[in-house]
Amino acid sequence: MQRIRSLKTFGHLLKSGCEGVNISPSTSRNYSHGPNSFGLLFDIDGVLVRGTTPIPAAKTCFKNLVDHKGKYKVPVVFVTNAGNCMRETKAEHLSHVLEVEVSPDQVVLSHSPLRMFKQFHKLCVLVSGQGPVVEVAHNLGFHDVVTIDMLREAYPLLDVVDHNRRPKDRIPPTKGLRHIDAVILFGEPIRWETNLQLIVDVLLTRGNPDNIWSSTHYPHIPVLACNMDILWMAEAKNPRFGHGMFLVALESLYKKVTGCELKYEALIGKPSIVTYNYAELLLRQQAGRLGWTTPVKRLYAIGDNPMADIYGANLYNRYLQASQRTRAQMQAKSGKLGVDSQAEIFDDAPLITQAEIGSTSGAYMAAEDLPEQCSSILVCTGVYSRDQQELPSDPPQTVTEKHIFHGHRDFHFDPSLMQPSIVAHDVKEAVELVFQQEGWALE
């Protein structure tokens, strides 16, 4: 794992990749809240819903979060690792189950930050996942998209695990496809064996399955993966495998065949910093619509998964603290901080890996644009349950305590990052505690 020691800002890249986001606060309504300027980041699965079933406390909570006109009292953004739909579809679903209006620009899906990765938008990309993957890819800015189904139809001899899908009477001709430049993994597919086989084919042939496998094709073409969740919570009593488990299988297969590590150009979705940076930009947009004239200083991230939600919020908080220290140090030395002056932002910070940043491109917002802190709140209605698991301690409290790391291979295990700022029974209690801490009345 690579320690980040030189990160230059590219806030302009984040802003240009977030089309339609106006980060200037609206002045149409004078709601200047002074120091009590905070925003809420909500996970969805296990916090607001279980599968398609709403959690009762969530509906009550959101009725209290809006006024009699249906306007939010504080800025709210929903941050989920789901990615098998358009954000408009997710917003419509949330509006229905919560019985409050949720707009698409309040929703961050696991793949949403891909809007910023414009260097890939004009390349031919292979996409893996389920749902309207082509529509999602085009909406994010990708122009030339190939699906797994398109690939297997063009090369009918590649997908043969299922005997019923093998060619029967004759060997069909290969149609061929344009050269594939990169692989985008949106989420867990339906047919794992087909996706695993064909993705490995593409990687070992440098994007052209007409070629013969070669381990000399290394490093392989770029791979960008969204959603690293090993487990997630639906209606079942126990967690279900997530896309992170599919990534484990892909990494293991690739290494078994080649002896080399699968490399990622970007890992996106919680707990990567880029996802929280992107969500915070949308939160500032919401604050502007509310008429707030002071920036959002404190974030509260509410989730049910210690590895994704708590680790991610705490990692982002670590990033924010390192940014502030660096800014103070630079100001003390030179009296001002230039836009490209964060080159040593993590020199004195705890370990932060390149994977945890979210991409090989670096950090995102200038230090003066960032909030002061991000607090993590863990609820007990999803993956985490007080009765079924204990949060890891650092160091272990007993000789029998085992640290089972459900994070991605490229993320480091730090038990302190999995310790929430607050543990609440459900999302209603979590929001009540936030409002109490901020000194706000919640009716």
Termini, distance in Å?
47 Å
Average pLDDT figure: 84
Number of domains: 2
Annotation, overall tally of beta strands: 15
Question: How are the strands ordered across the major sheet?
Answer: 5-4-1-13-14-15
Q: How would you explain this protein's 3D organization?
A:
The protein contains eleven helices and 15 strands. The protein has 443 residues and is an alpha/beta fold. The strands form four sheets. Strands 5-4-1-13-14-15 form a six-stranded parallel beta sheet, sandwiched between helices. Strands 7-6-8-9-12 form a five-stranded parallel beta sheet. α4 (133-140) links the parallel β6 (124-128) and β7 (144-147). α2 (56-65) packs parallel to α11 (427-438) and α6 (192-204) packs across α7 (243-258). The protein is globular, with a radius of gyration of 22 Å. 45% of the residues are buried. Keywords: Hydrolase, Signal. Belongs to the HAD-like hydrolase superfamily. One of its GO terms (biological process) is glycerophospholipid biosynthetic process. InterPro entries: CDP-alcohol_PTase-I (IPR050324), HAD-like_sf (IPR036412), HAD-SF_hydro_IIA (IPR006357), HAD-SF_hydro_IIA_CECR5 (IPR006353), HAD_sf (IPR023214).
